[in-house]
């Protein structure tokens, strides 16, 4: 029995978040909805403290009798998650105030979601995996329906909830099968128990677990909810969904596959490779006919998850560091793209979401158009921009693992995908404006947008060194422990 | 007794069943007679409170009144409304009645006189008493009529609300006894106060819980001032409006059996169950069952007294009391009691 | 037998025409599940199952279902058109399971559990055993489940709580604090004079 105090020290970031969320909640209850701004920035401070708690000794450590693990891998992903959560709670402020949904619970829910995600990436047991996942999902369901007066938002929440509950059920079923056939839920012990010729129940269990996790990263064939939920949910919430949970679920997928079921590599490799191909193809093709920008971004996120899964399918250190690198670049790109959508408001002040509203953006809002240009080129993976390098990294890993078909399909679909990204650029730069677009109302959002755009632009390449080093270290920590 | 039957000519299996059937009847028959007299006592106490005489015609001092009433409903025709959902309509009173009797299985009448001395006795009673709501909600729905429906809904909300605080109150007592077993809970009260009084009720930390339990028990059994499911001024007779004859009688019996069960539970939890009130050897000569019955009678008198004196609550006030007063208070008290036991006694050492 | 009843009532839940009957069947299924726990010697879990699921969750469920006004003829309209697809899906799943089961029969080894299942000590009641495990080994997951429930609670409040304006609320504190001096004026008006308020 490990002493509790030692475990608490190791799990400090989670503890900070949990306490922080409860403190914010109490403050919110007593101060009412007018405290929204204060709570949001207070939340940012809490994320920062939790981030500091991540620093310290870099060895991999187990806590709570092996339920929890802290290593470079989880620390890397937690940094991404905390940053994304902080940004997503800040950018929502003007939107929430305008939509009269400025309830103080918003930053609290985001923080609880972030807590769930950080528990996910630190999970070292199927039990803590499930609880983390469920915490994250519950917060997400509520956030999707946060605009409860709008039918589309309620619909998004309900759809997400019903399908998410189904996915959780499948995952749990898988967990119980694995437990039944191996007698343990601990990843360390599973590693020993799972061998090259596993029991049938374990295989079925693994398939169910992967299906449940694939739902969370919205990989094909478990992607159906994504476009509807992104479109219906409030835009900042959609930005949140497209960023932090993806990183967390991806990290979890990597840990479950490489760590717990490392012995069954040949089994899951086929599944992951199939999901990667299907996601890339469907994401690229499905996006073409879309009229709503948010739906388009949803398909784009499916597509991107496909690319990231290539790295996992390669199942090598190079592949894992590719996945981590991909997540680090994908998160700012997608948040940036959603931030652009968030900044689009028609003449009546209501948010715009149709592709046509982008027409002639370069004339009405030149600054925003440049940011859009950077994000779209970056998402398309055009070389000088940052978005090119992670794709390069995962393709490299695939070729290294001699998965040529996967790499070729990846390149082809990224060309197909470039088509719709370029269509957006065309609308913004070569068409005449239709209607007006109001200027940015929040300086903070403007500054964040500019910052993220600079990050994704070629200037961001200066950061590439540190990120790749960190990703490589994280991947090594994950594989060696 | 069970062994004796098993060793007799009946053989192990038949003997086992026969022994338990006899034991069950030994509890249920006196209970039903008790229920009949509880109704009579109830009416006499209200009458006294209102300076009337109450039932005094059938038998000496009206003692046979309840049996006359029972005979009357037994002979009447059972009417099932045309729009009713027949199966559920008939099932509802049966559930109500059965569930009210089920809980008695674990009530200890003395150290040995208990039908099923199970480890989780208190949870069993709690589970069974929470089932009573089904009889009401099903009857309300199956009657297919608006007053019963409203009564059923009210009752469902009310009983679920007060179960929460009852649960926490039970936890405080369980903490004190460190057991879910009802006999252990009774024994933990032996000489608990100053070494002579056998009652948790006089423990200053548990006394507020006793009061809250009493009030929650009133709500849980739909007794006035919480009899909103059958509030006659608004809902005719609430969930029982469409019932007649035997079905109606089953509701009536079930309701009183549930009240007596709650009184018994309260005696076990707070009044020392089958222990005499004082830890003094001569008092132990009187059998435990008598002490328990006396305590039940005392609590039942309180129930009737409240009925006769307190006006009915408004529904929102009822909910407010349950969720905003009792729930936080009982939750807080669980913390207080466990804190006390942790720091000032060696119970958790 | 209990498992059989669970299966039967589970089938009845989805087959019965009336949603209220479905819920009642569901309750029967819960009861039998509790019975299974009892037979496994887990009496604490059995009681908690009855208290929580039958005593509270199903009551609320029944409560909601009774108030819903659902036209079931309408719900059934799409049934026939989805039937072939559903049957195909069910067939595929069944085939998969059969293949898997066959493979299991052929391969034979169900895999040796690595961690032996801990046998409960005979002198410890299973309530105690459960508590000892939940509060020590699994404290982390236990606390985390608390956070999950907190989130659910916040969610329910966010999505349903509305601040209505123009409602006169009863303030019991104020009512109780009111003294006769604030509310009653005692005057003795002369004959023919009115009372000034």
UniProtKB/TrEMBL annotation, chain A:
Protein name: NADH-quinone oxidoreductase subunit N
Translocase keyword on record: yes
Upper taxonomic lineage: Bacteria, Pseudomonadati, Pseudomonadota, Alphaproteobacteria, Sphingomonadales
The protein's role, per its UniProt record: NDH-1 shuttles electrons from NADH, via FMN and iron-sulfur (Fe-S) centers, to quinones in the respiratory chain. The immediate electron acceptor for the enzyme in this species is believed to be ubiquinone. Couples the redox reaction to proton translocation (for every two electrons transferred, four hydrogen ions are translocated across the cytoplasmic membrane), and thus conserves the redox energy in a proton gradient.
Matching HAMAP family: NDH1_NuoN_1
Family to which the UniProt record says this protein belongs: Belongs to the complex I subunit 2 family.
EC number: 7.1.1.-
Complex and partners: NDH-1 is composed of 14 different subunits. Subunits NuoA, H, J, K, L, M, N constitute the membrane sector of the complex.
Catalysis: reaction(s): a quinone + NADH + 5 H(+)(in) = a quinol + NAD(+) + 4 H(+)(out)
Organism (species): Pacificimonas pallii
GO molecular function, one term: oxidoreductase activity
Membrane topology, as annotated: Multi-pass membrane protein
Major location category of this protein: membrane
Encoding gene, per UniProt annotation: nuoN
Alphabetical UniProt keywords: Cell membrane, Membrane, NAD, Oxidoreductase, Quinone, Translocase, Transmembrane, Transmembrane helix, Transport, Ubiquinone
Top EC class for this record: translocase
Limits of the NADH:quinone oxidoreductase/Mrp antiporter transmembrane domain: 123-416
Localization annotation: Cell membrane; Endomembrane system; Membrane
PANTHER family xrefs: NADH DEHYDROGENASE
Membrane-traversing stretches: 12-31, 38-55, 75-97, 104-121, 127-146, 158-179, 199-225, 237-256, 268-289, 296-315, 327-347, 368-389, 401-422, 448-472
Domain of life from the UniProt record: Bacteria
Automatic annotation (TrEMBL), chain B:
InterPro entries: NADH_UbQ_OxRdtase_su1/FPO, NADH_UbQ_OxRdtase_su1_CS
KW Nucleotidyltransferase (keyword) present: no
Keywords: Cell membrane, Membrane, NAD, Oxidoreductase, Quinone, Translocase, Transmembrane, Transmembrane helix, Ubiquinone
Keyword Transmembrane helix: yes
Transmembrane spans: 17-40, 88-109, 121-141, 162-181, 201-219, 249-272, 284-309, 321-343
Enzymatic reactions: a quinone + NADH + 5 H(+)(in) = a quinol + NAD(+) + 4 H(+)(out)
Localization (cell): Cell membrane; Membrane
Membrane topology: Multi-pass membrane protein
EC numbers on record: 7.1.1.-
GO molecular-function term, one example from the UniProt record: oxidoreductase activity
Family annotation (NCBIfam families): PRK06076.1-2, PRK06076.1-6
Protein purpose: NDH-1 shuttles electrons from NADH, via FMN and iron-sulfur (Fe-S) centers, to quinones in the respiratory chain. The immediate electron acceptor for the enzyme in this species is believed to be ubiquinone. Couples the redox reaction to proton translocation (for every two electrons transferred, four hydrogen ions are translocated across the cytoplasmic membrane), and thus conserves the redox energy in a proton gradient. This subunit may bind ubiquinone.
Subunit composition and interactions: NDH-1 is composed of 14 different subunits. Subunits NuoA, H, J, K, L, M, N constitute the membrane sector of the complex.
Annotated family: Belongs to the complex I subunit 1 family.
Protein known as: NADH-quinone oxidoreductase subunit H
Gene name in the database record: nuoH
